[in-house]
Every structure is written in C-alpha cells, then in structure tokens.
C-alpha cells in the first residue's frame, strides 16, 4: 500500500487555500502573533524544550452536543495529562443547533482560549486570513515534532495559507469514493444477479425492489438533493471545483490544463436527465422528495439504496447488524479527501500555544492518551473486542469525541460491527492512488469565494431552485435545462467561473 511519506524539511509550500490568489481579507503577514511571543518565555531559548514547571489549564472548543456523562471522561483524561504534561484540558462544546452562529464569534469576541476544531465547511481559510488563528511556522515542528514529522506533503500544503501554517490536519486518510449503499438481504429469493457496478445495475436493482418490496422507496432521496448527479459526474472522471457534492462547476482532472464547465455544457447531461426522468416515472423516489426532511431512510429501513461514501456504509452496517448492506464505488478517479476537512487550530488569543501543541503531539502519538481523549474510559464508557474494535457502553450518556482532527490511521478504531470488507476497500483505494495524477493532483485545491460572495451565493440558490427539480425529472429536460442556464447566467456564473478558473490555473502553475 502506497504511503505518502512525511517530510520534516518542507520549504515554502502552497496550500490548497494558499495557492488561491483571491487577494481578500487580512493578509497572514498582518496577523498579530504577540501572544506567541509572550508565551515563548515558558520554553528554554537554548534547548527549545518545553517548560512544564507551571501547571496550566488549556481550553479547547469542539462542535457537537455534550454527552451527559462527559464529566467522568474529562476527569480521567485530565489525570492522565496532568502526570505527563502538568496541564489540564477544559473542553467546551458548541451545540449543533448553534454552531453556525457561535463558531465565528469565537474568533471575533477576543475570548482567550487555546485550541479549536476547524474544517473547510467552517471557513478555515477565510478565518485564517482574518487573523483568527496563530501562525504555526515557528511552533509546530518545535512543540509537536512527532506530529509534524508524520504529516504528508499534501497535508502540509493544505495547512498553509498565504505561505504560513495555520492548522494541524488530521492524520487519518479518507477517500472521495462515492456510490450506492444498498440492502442485499431484501434481494433474497429474487432473480437479482448481485451486480452493482454501473448505473444500469442500480436501475435493475431498483426495479426488483419496486416489484418485491413495494413498501420501500428504492432510492433514498430527500430535501438535501439526490447526489446522484455528483456521482454521475465523478463516475465520468470529472472533479468538482469545490471538492464536494452539490457543485455546479466541474473539470477534467486528466487534462493538463483543465477548464471549468457546468451541467448545460456537458455532452453527457442529456443522458443523465433522461435516466433520472425514467427513474422518476418508475417511482424509484417520491414525487415530493425535495420536501422530505427524513435523512435516515436507508438506515431505518424505509429506502433500499443511497449514494454516499464508504464510511456511511460502515456506519449503516453497525446500526442494524441484522440487515445486510453492501457498497460499490462508482468514482472513476479515487483520491484522498483534503486532510484539512478535520483539523485543529491554535487561537490567536492563546496564552499557552506551546503546551497546547505538546498536548496535541501527545494525543496523536500515544495510543493510551488518544483512547482516553477520543473514546473515554475503557470498560466504563467504551469496551474493546478481541480485534480492537470499540463499542460505546451507554449511548445515552457517552459518545466518542467530536474533535475528529485527532484521529490517525494508526490509532483510529472501527466500531464493533464494521463490515469485514470496509478496511479491504480502503486499502484498495489507497493502492489505486498515484501522487500527482488524476483527482489526487487537485486534492489540495480549494476555492476562495470571498471576492465573488454575492454571485456565488446567487448561483448556489439558482442551482438548488432549478437544477434539483430538473435532475429528478420533475421538470421537462429540454425546457428545464434551458431555464437553468438562463437563471445561472443571470446569477453571475460567468464571473464565478472566471475567478475560480484563475485560482485553478494558479494552483496548476505552482505545481510545476
């Protein structure tokens, strides 16, 4: 299995955000790092070793609903790190219901804290440019040396904004594989051939479900969109400009200088729309799917198949072990997802960045510390089976951490009941990836919409309003596609395309 080697000496690298020359927000060169300078007195100037003589309390923010029994987990973890680093950790939880409002306020309120979870979906790059996070250029390799030495070249690129490190990415490899998660137990007694390798196979499977299981919806589609359109484009080898689903700009990653295009410019779109209209006519999904808010239909038995990632396949299988699920990847060009999808940042208000980084180094390099932080207390909050897979003992009181950035390929555990082929699939994905080729070449690319915020938001709105019903066959394919083009052009897609193309070109130029 090919492993991307870590580099201790990595010069000036461009990040997936840093290479985006959007020229907006506060330049990283203007970020106030006075807190880091003040706190550096804790360490020896001569040896660079951490001074742990004074006990400190570190403060970390994560997103998620705090488990009822978290106090016991925190107490156990703090006893452990008090012995090892003479510090304790106060863990603050931002509830899912409030994160959209409260998370940005963390970095504008002036509150003093040390560490926080971040991700692209939390506007990591934008916040970094506004000075929310402390630069790690002089800190990361010194106070979290083991973590730094294990980071891949791609991860280091992705952690860099305008030439400076601003986050510590996860060391758990994840993949862009996408495709049907489907029930196989409900096929028993049918004439299904067991194949699920193409969209034709998906249709055959759904035909059988419609005939033999009329109480089920063959396809799991709800108000967040179908994602079959994304799966279709990825199956053709195209990459999304934003690197995730529900996009409207794509490019061919196999080309030397790829150009962005949208749905109404693709020769394959009519074929896709014809297929989806046929699926609609066959009743594979509800006529009111876009108003259905139930996002759990596949795992609760209401629907037979959903297109999603391999991790959801593993999750569904553990929820209902009495059912049988299987998974097929339809993505043509397999690549790693950005490592900054789960990352840890040091707040620019931190008084103890050195100790915070030392703690992070410990969490990500010591199995005992990681388990205590991420899973809790063995045989009280979680148990392990003979394979090292975990199970939460009481889901009403305990849960794994939502600081997903702490996970590493070495220490992360599967939940009890994970399908036997889950790890095999991931190993296959890893083996198929070739550095610098296909979608993997663009794994560090991310778009910066700060200079086109109004137009980009308008395009997203038009895409949802006109493409979503079109792709489900609710509107006529020919007239609907023409209307979609008209609305996207009115929303400003050409300005959006021009700006993102400029960023993509700059990214490619900096790879040479």
UniProtKB/TrEMBL annotation:
Listed Gene3D superfamilies: Periplasmic binding protein-like II (3.40.190.10)
Record has tRNA-binding as a keyword: no
Domain DUF3502 stretches: 442-509
Region (Disordered): 31-50
Keywords: Signal
Protein name, as recorded: ABC-type glycerol-3-phosphate transport system substrate-binding protein
Signal sequence extent: 1-22
Keyword Transcription regulation: no
SUPFAM superfamilies: Periplasmic binding protein-like II
